[in-house]
Fold this sequence. Notes:
The protein is built from seven helices and nine strands. It is an alpha/beta fold.
Amino acid sequence: MAGRLIYLIGPSGSGKDSLLDAARTRLAERGCRIVRRVITRSAEAVGEAALGVSAQQFVDMEAQGAFALSWHANGLSYGIPREIDDWLAASEDVLVNGSRGHLQNTRQRYPDVLVLLLTVDQAVLRQRLLERGRESLIEIDQRLARNARFSEQLLADDPTVHMLDNSGPIEQTVERLLVCIDE
Length: 183
């Protein structure tokens, strides 16, 4: 039996990286790998422990078929290494920090994907984005409006999406994540 792709999505600032860090050991105990993404953002940038590459390196990797999934968003390029297909074939579950905008393409390639939408109270999210300091106040407000519309539409259109609220303690979100994966 093949492994399962678990596709974690949510707005920037919802705590995906914090959740993955907090759940890493417990996921590993279940035989679930967390994928390290390739991003055209320097390795020194605050955020996830991704492999930072230049835009040209990314283009070259993409042309060489290095990615099972890739997309472009917010001025950056993101890639999921092709080795996830080997892990899935070896009956390992694989958790990917994905893209809401790339969900349809992911579903086409991996029809049995488990989609987890990480949400957070809008006021909490706004504060996190302000503290991160990557965007202006106008950009943050625009992002919040887009996030709200997207999440509402996704949940209305797709009853198979599991929602995880990350407004409270991270330990609670880890428990809800594990319940969704074990279902």
